[in-house]
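Sequence decides. Our protein:
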Amino acid sequence: MAVRKAGRMAASVAAVALLGAVVTGCDSDDDGDWMGGGKKSPSASAEPSDPAAKSPSQDTGPAAKVPPASVNDLAKVPTAVKGGVITVGEPSAKHTVKVYEDPRCPFCKKFEENGAQALVAPLAAGDVKVEYTIASFLDNNFGGDGSKNAANALRAAVDTGKFPQFHSALFTNQPEESDDGFTPAFLLKVGAAAGIKDAAFDKAVTGNAHKAWVATAMKAFTADGVSGTPTVEIDGKKAPADSLYDKADFAKALKDAGVS
């Protein structure tokens, strides 16, 4: 009996270990039944929200936290938009890192708060540029408009000159993946936490001004053959998934690619 029980325990441990090894990102093919739990967010069956249905003054949600101080090192780094891609860094930078993210993806948050911190110094020094392709497939998986709202706000942040700060603040304040928490009202709070005081930004966020660009970005994500987030490429070569969630590990991946 003891042997049989030990065998069952070993099998359970192995299953958990295997699951931990497999789940390394958000899959665009996921139907919302995450990790086989058989449950979706209550918002998954709800109709998409109307950004104009609730004014910022009516919001009673949480306050937004300020992003890490490290992002201030990128205050003078140029940002540009071409097609569905937002590029941060000097156009002449020798190296290019492509980052594919969905604002609701918790693994993207994990990457931004850990591995991506190794990009701050080379970005500030002009050694690398980062091309962001912002997806919004998790709205289909879990319901709501949070990813699209956040992508719209990210595009609006470019025009304020504070995209790096807002991008960092966005993931600092990311709601639970199944919670459609990136409402326009909350995104205005995130903008304030990132130091954005701009009436045009507020109008773009509440009015969904960059709806067409959000669709273009999603098309770019699909056209590149990417199926999950975060996906990171360094000079055209996919970075190892196990390097993304630790600053030292991703710094090594950058160094191996010649990024100083």
